[in-house]
């Protein structure tokens, strides 16, 4: 959102406030770094972790993906900057330089238990191939592995899922991201290669039900919306794909969300 100079309010008396009050205001203006984000997938690496009696095979997204943190108060004035930079040090955020005329940005690591990995349906094959290539390297010969991932949520655009008729292929990701239990379907198309926040969108969540071998409307949806999720999951192709994957008890949920751009 942009503001014209005429509509921007300036509190000229702010410097006259008590120092304790000014500091509290600057602290209250600091961003919440725990807010979940949609974070674009990018090619990374898989690594083997010795965890006897099993050897775990893990994706390393938390090591290679950084989530940008907007912190304009770091560039407001000396007083605000000192508080913001102390916050950066306490949280061990990274500082990333940008263009010559731009302020640097701060980043935090990707949180597999909190953030959602945003991907294009067309990248499903690339993700599987990246994992397969790692398996066939020389140091994997004779090694028995169990795939493991902390990742809980993935996200895809509703438009792309529909256009590529890709929902039935989502199940292929679950061979590698074994802990994923939620697919966020982004119902607005404000998607690019930048991380962003998200919020629930009107519409029902659908849960895979092992007993019925199909997706059914969940009890946690906000309201009956425009049927975006229903149109994606309630097809014979999707039912067949999930049934053949041997998914038993309810554990995979598809929810509609909206991406939020600042």
UniProtKB/TrEMBL annotation:
Q: Which InterPro entries match?
A: 2EXR (IPR045518)
Q: Which domain of life is it from?
A: Eukaryota
- Can you give the residue ranges of the 2EXR domain? 11-92
Record's protein name: 2EXR domain-containing protein
Please name the taxonomic classification of the source: Eukaryota, Fungi, Dikarya, Ascomycota, Pezizomycotina
């Amino acid at each position: 959102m942009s503001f014209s100079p005429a509509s921007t309010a300036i509190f000229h008396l702010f410097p006259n406030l008590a120092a304790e009050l000014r500091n509290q205001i600057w602290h209250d203006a600091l961003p919440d770094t725990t807010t979940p984000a949609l974070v674009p997938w990018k090619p990374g690496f898989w690594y083997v972790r010795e965890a006897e009696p099993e050897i775990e095979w893990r994706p390393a997204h938390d090591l290679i993906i950084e989530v940008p943190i907007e912190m304009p108060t770091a560039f407001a004035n000396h007083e605000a900057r000192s508080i913001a930079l102390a916050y950066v040090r306490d949280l061990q955020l990274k500082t990333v330089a940008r263009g010559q005329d731009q302020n640097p940005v701060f980043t935090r690591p990707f949180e597999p238990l909190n953030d959602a990995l945003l991907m294009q349906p067309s990248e499903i094959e690339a993700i599987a191939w990246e994992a397969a290539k790692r398996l066939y390297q020389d140091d994997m010969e004779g090694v028995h592995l169990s795939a493991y991932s902390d990742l809980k949520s993935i996200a895809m655009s509703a438009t792309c899922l529909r256009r590529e008729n890709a929902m039935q292929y989502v199940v292929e990701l679950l061979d590698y991201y074994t802990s994923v239990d939620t697919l966020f379907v982004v119902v607005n198309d404000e998607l690019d290669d930048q991380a962003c926040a998200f919020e629930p969108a009107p519409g029902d969540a659908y849960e895979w039900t092992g007993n019925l071998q199909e997706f059914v409307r969940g009890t946690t949806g906000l309201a009956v919306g425009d049927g975006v999720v229903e149109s994606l999951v309630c097809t014979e192709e999707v039912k067949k794909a999930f049934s053949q994957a041997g998914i038993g008890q309810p554990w995979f949920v598809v929810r509609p969300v909206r991406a939020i751009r600042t």
